């Protein structure tokens, strides 16, 4: 019994010595910086999203896109009516612009009660998001900043790039990370000053 007691005291002393916060002791404690800066490998460079990221700036950009996403989903809801439950939303490009709209469109479609699938199944309706620069009537684009008037559309069941139907409209949205991508062919209507009153 005495030997067990002395062994347990020795183990306790070693354990307590290992918990000491100074220089390295006989007990391993995993990585310890010993009051120096943590040494980790440098991370990957972040993707350029077109502006210096901050939570406030990002929220503002997303909210400035949300009205367009909501309007497009309400328009497509009128087209699909109650005949469709599942949607397959295809993201044509993984850039900041398309990823932001993909996120917002999914939120709005879920809010409208649609079930979103991860693949194009027999029971789902494929939806492609298409964004095109508008063609002004006078040929002069007045916006030089990141916010531009765009023709945005949700294309229904495109086959070989030809849509069976679509809904769309002109929206002034942030174009950070926009590139003309996608294989869906749509005709962009001419945009004239008189069109603003009709929206």
List keywords for this structure.
199 residues; two-stranded parallel ribbon; alpha/beta; 21% strand; 32% helix; five-stranded mixed beta sheet; single chain; 4 helices
Overview of this structure, please?
Helices cover 32% and strands 21% of the residues. It has 199 residues and is of the alpha/beta class. The protein has a five-stranded mixed beta sheet with strand order 2-1-3-5-6, with helices on one face. Strand 5 and strand 6 (165-174) form a beta hairpin. Helix 2 crosses helix 3.
Tell me the Rg in angstroms.
Answer: 28 Å
Mean pLDDT: 78
Number of strands: 7
Helix content: 25-40%
Secondary-structure element pattern, one letter each: HHEHEEEEEEH
Number of domain modules: 1
Percent range for β-strand residues: 15-25%
| Strand arrangement across the biggest beta sheet | 2-1-3-5-6
Short description:
The protein has 199 residues and is α/β, with parallel strands linked by helices. The protein contains four helices and seven strands; from the N terminus they run ααβαββββββα.
Question: What topology does this entry show?
Answer:
Blueprint: H1 2-18, H2 55-80, E1 86-90, H3 96-111, E2 115-116, E3 124-133, E4 135-136, E5 147-156, E6 165-174, E7 190-191, H4 195-198
Parallel strand pairs: 1-2, 1-3, 4-7
Antiparallel strand pairs: 3-5, 5-6
Helix pairs in contact: 2-3
């Amino acid at each position: 019994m005495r030997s067990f007691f002395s062994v347990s005291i020795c183990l306790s002393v070693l354990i307590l010595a290992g918990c000491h916060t100074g220089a390295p002791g006989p007990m391993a404690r995993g990585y310890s910086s010993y009051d120096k800066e943590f040494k980790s490998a440098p991370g990957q460079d972040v993707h350029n999203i077109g502006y210096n990221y901050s939570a406030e700036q990002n929220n503002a950009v997303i909210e400035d896109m949300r009205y367009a996403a909501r309007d497009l989903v309400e328009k497509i809801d009128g087209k699909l009516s109650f005949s469709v439950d599942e949607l397959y939303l295809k993201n044509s490009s993984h850039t900041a612009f398309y990823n932001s709209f993909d996120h917002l469109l999914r939120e709005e479609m879920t809010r409208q009660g649609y079930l979103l699938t991860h693949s194009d199944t027999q029971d789902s309706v494929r939806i492609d998001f298409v964004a095109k620069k508008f063609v002004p009537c006078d040929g002069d684009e007045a916006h030089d900043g990141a916010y531009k008037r765009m023709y945005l559309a949700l294309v229904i069941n495109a086959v070989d790039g030809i849509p069976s139907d679509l809904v769309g409209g002109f929206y002034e949205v942030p174009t950070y990370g926009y590139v003309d991508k996608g294989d869906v062919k749509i005709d962009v209507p001419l945009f004239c000053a008189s069109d603003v009153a009709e929206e």
